Amino acid sequence: MPQWDIVLLRNVMIYFDNDVKKTFLGQVSRIIGKDGYLLLGGAETTINLNASFRRFESLRAGFYQLQPA
């Protein structure tokens, strides 16, 4: 599968338990490009689920990128 530049999971992960969220985020971390972005809903986070991502905020919106290796 090619690398993705953006993954939109806005208001998707709120419906699943932590094990499923960890699986989602693990899969996303493998397919997202080095400079790609993950967008989640306001009530969603990667904290305590996957340490591969770091959060950024811009214009009242939060987004995530993979941590540098």
Backbone CA Rg: 11 Å
Q: Main sheet, how many strands, which sense, barrel?
A: 2 strands, parallel
Low-confidence stretches: none
Overall spatial form: globular
Helix content: 10-25%
- In percent, how much strand structure appears in the residues? 35-45%
Q: Count up the helices.
A: 1
Order of helix and strand elements from N to C terminus: EHEEE
Salient structural properties:
69 residues; alpha+beta; two-stranded parallel sheet; two-stranded antiparallel sheet; 1 helix
Explain what this protein looks like in three dimensions.
The chain has 69 residues and is α+β, with helices and mostly antiparallel strands. The chain has 1 helix and 4 strands, in the order βαβββ. It has one helix spanning 18-31; strands at 4-9, 32-40, 53-58, 61-66. The strands form 2 sheets. It has a two-stranded parallel sheet with strand order 1-2. A two-stranded antiparallel sheet has the order 3-4. The mean pLDDT is 88.
